[in-house]
Structure formats: C-alpha cells, structure tokens
C-alpha cells in the first residue's frame, strides 16, 4: 500500500502545502511594505476536500451526492454548503487590505503580517506533528507484536 493513498496523510500534506504558500505570500507582503500602492495578499481559509470512499459519486456506500449534515435540533449549527467543503489544492491569493493605508497608498501593516506569519508557522508545525505521529503509528502497526 502506498502511503500517499491514506486520506489522513493526504489531507495533512494539503494543509502543509497551504501554509507553505500562505507563508510565501506573507513574506511577499512584508517585502513590499515600502512599495507605493501595494495591497497585501492572503489565501482564502483552508478547507479540506471531501474525497475518497463514501464522499461522493461512486463512493464506497454508493451515494450519488456529497454527504451533508442534517440539523436535528433548532440549536444546532447549520451545515456548510457543499461548495464550502470543496477546494483545498487550488489555492489562490486574495487581496486583503489591512487596517492601515499610508499616504503613498501602501496598505501593508507589518504587525498584521507578523501575526499571519506566526499563525501559519504554528499551524504548519501542528500539521507536521500530526503527520509524524500518524506515520509512527503506521510503522508500529506494520511491525506487529514482538
């Protein structure tokens, strides 16, 4: 079995790729902090792509539509629209103006960019930790009892 076919590891790799790209955009924003008229960019929030067995057409359970949550009590949170669940790998930068605009039209706030950088780094490190732990559990299961 190929390790890349395990859905959990594929999702974690996708998350790490997302935060790598986000870190690159934040670095680009910081590099252009003195560029007149520059507007900072960021990525849309990360969402896992629903795929694999039982996740859609032809899944393991034979469903023809994506699985959605149902609301069984009025106090429950409403489920996301199906289009909110899709699209993890097609990262695209979005213009996100910060709260500050200088006289030359630059909208980069270094404080905000540093917060985004720290957030990306912490989430990336958490994903790496989960990935390493998952791989070590797979190795332990593959070894079997001693």
Keywords:
146 residues; mainly alpha; two-stranded antiparallel ribbon; 2 strands
SS element count, helices: 3
SSE succession: HEHEH
Oligomer: single chain
Form type: elongated
Summarize the biggest pleated sheet.
Answer: 2 strands, antiparallel
Strand residues, percent: under 5%
| Order of strands in the sheet with most strands | 1-2
- Rounded mean pLDDT score: 77
Structural class category? mainly alpha
Distance between the termini: 22 Å
State the low-pLDDT regions, or none: 54-66, 82-89
Tell me the number of strands: 2
The radius of gyration over CA amounts to: 20 Å
Considering DSSP H and I runs of 4 or more, what fraction of the residues is helical? 40-55%
The gist of it:
About 45% of the residues lie in helices and about 5% in strands.
């Amino acid at each position: 079995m190929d390790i890349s076919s395990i859905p959990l590891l594929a999702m974690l790799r996708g998350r790490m790729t997302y935060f790598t790209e986000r870190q690159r955009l934040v670095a680009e924003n910081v590099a252009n902090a003195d560029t007149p008229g520059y507007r900072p960019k960021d990525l849309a929030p990360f969402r896992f792509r629903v795929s694999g067995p039982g996740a859609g057409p032809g899944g393991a359970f034979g469903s023809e539509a994506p699985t959605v949550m149902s609301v069984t009590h009025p106090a429950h949170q409403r489920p996301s629209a199906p289009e909110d669940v899709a699209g993890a790998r097609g990262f695209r930068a979005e213009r996100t103006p910060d709260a500050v605009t200088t006289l030359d039209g630059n909208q980069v706030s270094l404080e905000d960019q540093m917060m985004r950088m720290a957030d990306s780094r912490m989430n990336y490190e958490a994903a790496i930790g989960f990935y390493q732990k998952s791989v070590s559990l797979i190795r332990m299961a593959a070894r079997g009892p001693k």
